[in-house]
């Protein structure tokens, strides 16, 4: 029987990688839904190639253009995730949620009840709305697998083991493009420099997050949420080669080290084919890297964003949404050359340390609307606070 699949954010890198894997075994898959925000041309090409009957595209203009392009095709076009009940009459086998940013939160929550397994690549959903997601997972008996290389590695390393047997986990960071430049050069960093990640091909936003190292703060929050591990038991290690993705130290003295090549194809493949008879061609073990791992602790002078740890509340709250939303807007301003690279961290700390936002450490997110409304407010607040120093 064919596996029934849906991909939220199919025109992004994660979605494309998943479709490339499916294409090699197309006879065993039935892709029932693909979605995008704006890229209707790629979405239509994907729909034709995989014979997909349902598409969601959320940008209104792109929706109208896609409708015109599909007038004579047997494809249903929707403009909203409110129509999922018209698409799925029964639970499907697998959903990949890879919509970028906070926009991925509501679609992720809404589709859980329609699938037996959901694989989430959207950091913001797990950071800001994990309690809501987890409630839906339990309510609908839906299996969850994280697909970020670090969290998939932790998840894989914990198979048939209990979280309370963990003494400590280590998440690795490459150090980004500025691992070796002198500290006095940071004030003159250009956008083009910050986008040049040494190991991974990524979108602009996540490339900047990697350069500031806030992406590792995000990953620690995700690990805390997913595995229910306190922050004191999670540590970041600099590992320039990005070959080791996670280390698990157990309270029985054993240590697990999870490694794979720097490609998202490996975790994505395993969310789809784990415990099956399918094999993925991969490179031989790189002994040169294994013999020269060069793990280092994070230098706070080089990566001051890591100081965010001391402001994080022990339990999930709306404060994480403030961090994500403020950073999103500041990165946008940096990419548009309105602020300096060093301003991202400085202005983020200014925002989160204010009395107005500190109180959110004690407020628990109850529904997606709480998170989305706060996101919009924080983004406007960031603009207001930096208005005097930028030309908007």
What descriptors fit this protein?
392 residues; alpha/beta; Rossmann fold; Rna Polymerase Sigma Factor, Chain: A; 3 domains; seven-stranded parallel sheet; five-stranded mixed sheet; 12 strands; 41% helix
Structure overview:
The protein has 392 residues and is α/β, with parallel strands linked by helices. It is 41% helix and 15% strand. It has 3 domains: 144 residues, NAD(P)-binding Rossmann-like Domain (Rossmann fold, 3-Layer(aba) Sandwich), CATH 3.40.50; 162 residues, no CATH class; 80 residues, Orthogonal Bundle (Rna Polymerase Sigma Factor, Chain: A), CATH 1.10.1740.10. Strand 10 and strand 11 form a beta hairpin. The model has no long low-confidence stretch (mean pLDDT 93).
Structural class: alpha/beta
Broad shape = globular
The proportion of residues in beta strands is: 15-25%
- Extract low-pLDDT stretches: none
Number of domains: 3
Number of helices: 16
The strand line-up of the biggest sheet is 4-3-2-1-5-6-7
Give average pLDDT, whole number: 93
Measure the end-to-end span: 55 Å
Approximate helicity band: 40-55%
Main sheet attributes: strand count, strand direction, barrel closure: 7 strands, parallel
Give, in order, the helices and strands.
Answer: EHEHEHEHEHEHEHEHHHEEEHHEHHHH
What integer value in Å does the Rg equal?
21 Å
Give the tally of β-strands: 12
């Amino acid at each position: 029987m064919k596996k029934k699949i849906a991909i939220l954010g199919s025109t992004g890198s994660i979605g494309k990688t998943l479709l490339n894997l499916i294409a090699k075994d197309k006879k065993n898959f039935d892709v029932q839904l693909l979605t995008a925000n704006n890229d209707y041309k790629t979405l239509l090409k994907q729909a034709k190639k995989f014979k997909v009957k349902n598409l969601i595209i959320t940008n209104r203009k792109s929706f109208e253009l896609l409708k015109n392009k599909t007038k004579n095709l047997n494809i249903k076009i929707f403009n909203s995730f409110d129509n999922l009940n018209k698409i799925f009459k029964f639970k499907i086998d697998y959903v990949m949620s890879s919509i970028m940013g906070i926009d991925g939160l509501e679609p992720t929550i809404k589709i859980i009840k329609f699938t037996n397994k959901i694989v989430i690549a959207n950091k913001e959903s797990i950071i800001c709305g994990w309690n809501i997601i987890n409630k839906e997972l339990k309510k609908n008996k839906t299996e969850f697998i994280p697909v970020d290389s670090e969290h998939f590695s932790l998840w894989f390393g914990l198979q048939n083991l209990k979280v309370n047997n963990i003494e400590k986990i280590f998440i690795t960071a490459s150090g980004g493009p500025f691992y070796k430049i002198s500290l006095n050069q940071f004030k003159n960093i250009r956008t083009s420099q910050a986008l040049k990640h040494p190991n991974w091909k990524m979108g602009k936003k996540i490339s900047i997050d990697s350069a500031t190292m806030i992406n590792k703060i995000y990953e620690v929050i995700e690990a805390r949420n997913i595995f229910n591990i306190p922050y004191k038991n999670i540590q970041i290690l600099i590992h320039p080669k990005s070959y080791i993705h996670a280390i698990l130290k157990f309270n029985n003295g054993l240590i697990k080290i999870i490694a794979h090549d720097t490609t998202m194809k490996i975790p994505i493949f395993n969310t789809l084919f784990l415990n099956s008879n399918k094999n993925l061609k991969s490179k031989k073990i790189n002994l040169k890297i294994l013999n020269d791992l060069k793990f280092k602790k994070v230098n706070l002078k080089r990566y001051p964003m890591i100081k965010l740890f001391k402001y994080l509340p022990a339990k999930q709250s709306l404060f994480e949404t403030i961090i994500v939303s403020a950073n999103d807007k500041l990165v946008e301003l940096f990419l548009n050359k309105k602020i300096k690279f060093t301003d991202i961290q400085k202005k983020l700390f200014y925002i989160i340390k204010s009395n107005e936002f500190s109180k959110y450490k004690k407020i628990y997110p109850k529904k997606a609307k709480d998170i989305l409304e706060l996101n919009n407010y924080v983004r406007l607040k960031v603009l207001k606070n930096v208005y005097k120093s930028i030309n908007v």
